[in-house]
Amino acid sequence: MSRQIDRRSFLRRGAAGAAALAVGPGLLAACSTDEPGSAGNPGPGSSPRSGGTLRAAFVGGGAAETLDFFNGPSALDLVRARAWHGTLGNLDPSGPDGVRYGVLKGIDIADDLSAYTLHVRPGVRFTDGSRLTSADILHSLSALAARSKLPVYRLAAANFDLARAKADGDLKVVLPTLRPIADGRLILCQGNFLVVKDGTKAFRESMPSCGPFRLTGFTAGQGSAFERYDDHYGHVPHLDGLELRSIADSTARAGALTGGAVDFAHDLSPVTARTLADDAKVELAPTKSPYLVGLSFQLNMSAEPFDDPRVREAFKLAVDREAMVKTVFYGNAEIGNDLPSLGFPDYADGIPQRAHDPGRARALLEEAGADGVKVQLTTGPETPGMVEMATLFVEDLKKIGVRASVRELPPGQLYADFPAYSALPLAGSYQMPVPALSTYQMNTAGGSPSAFGWKKSETDALVAQARAERDPERARELGTRAQRTRWDEGNQVVPVFKPNLNAQAKGVDGISDDLFEQFPGFSRASLA
């Protein structure tokens, strides 16, 4: 019997801890599947467990945090959801077809790429005892994900005809495609498509779930508490419980770790991480390629002066990328080339690296009649480095004659009103580690709000051709052509790819085994 976490005591500890740490004592054909660890219903005692409760600190969204992960913009909203709800699958470059399945046991693709058949893993149960069926998958995709305000969840509706999707019995879902696609498994198994019960409209603590943990307590801006779900379909967690704490400041997250208040601190700033390097009780656990976070600036082509391609090119040429890597990340980052998804197989790595050329940038602005233009860059500390990079970018822009300034929002607020964010003329951003063509469609294709005014039907067509191509070499050729167009004409400046600088107490293990390391799920984590 798993240990119940006392909700009131947890929330008292979380509130007191957050207040103390704000000051801090110093630095405070179907593919193979990820089958369950044992046959039949796992149940209590089916796998060895370390026990104990792991405590983890993340940047949250303050009062805007929500249990409705389909519309929750903060990293903590998705981390909470991944601990609580079952996932269709995760990206796994080492697995067959690049995925590891969750509540699905496999996906078949029609020979003509006209439909995908999702095979539901038999015997998956919600915490209320009911079995997960194809109806739950359909509801989660068509009624919830498709209506999300966040681009990452609308990706399924952009590729599959969800209005014609249907259940074929209790354990099959047939998803017709809107156009031929060969890489649909990589779309459906990104780690963020999670499953709730058919008919779910409101998200609350007591709702049934089928993830590795049961939610036992939640207070927005403070934290959440979980206990192990012993009937989890796959690997039954080693841990008895899990606590996720919302701590916006990087120094405070590190202080919580070194002070013993938490066992894992997520996404620390480079400065903070350097101070932990010699701590014998702590180990750094940065993510590695391709799980690097692209930090970027979005230039809204629907607003002046970014409707002029010369201005967009000038802003790209103005960036001193090497200085950003050295100054903000102490060299522990990769230089970006204004394209997302560095390290994934479909990334166009043959395109020349864009130079730092302030002289040419200034000439382009003068040619466009934009010399001395005034701009405001809106950003926020959604992940460490965003604000520091924005500050350096503004200084680079001033050197080419732009009257630039930074507007910094509080933690968790940059994406809170996504329509308002998408209308900004110049905004900071970061990208989840997702393959290049999926990233293009998620953020750019068809003039979606997150495209910041990019509308190039010919590039959309190239991406569609690449994604419909079964021959990997031909798909890569087409994808590279599409990315070259984005490099030449696009409205995204991507100067840096940085690891998530996570840190954990010695003896913590297995967190990265959950995949999707930017948003860990903790089902395989253990304590010494």
Automatic annotation (TrEMBL):
Keyword Signal among record annotations: yes
Q: Where is this region: Disordered?
A: 33-52
Task: Kindly state which keywords UniProt assigns to this record, in alphabetical order.
Answer: Signal
Instruction: Outline the extent of the Solute-binding protein family domain.
Output: 104-423
Where in the sequence is the signal peptide annotated? 1-29
Q: Which CDD domains match?
A: PBP2_NikA_DppA_OppA_like_17
Protein name per its UniProtKB record: ABC transporter substrate-binding protein
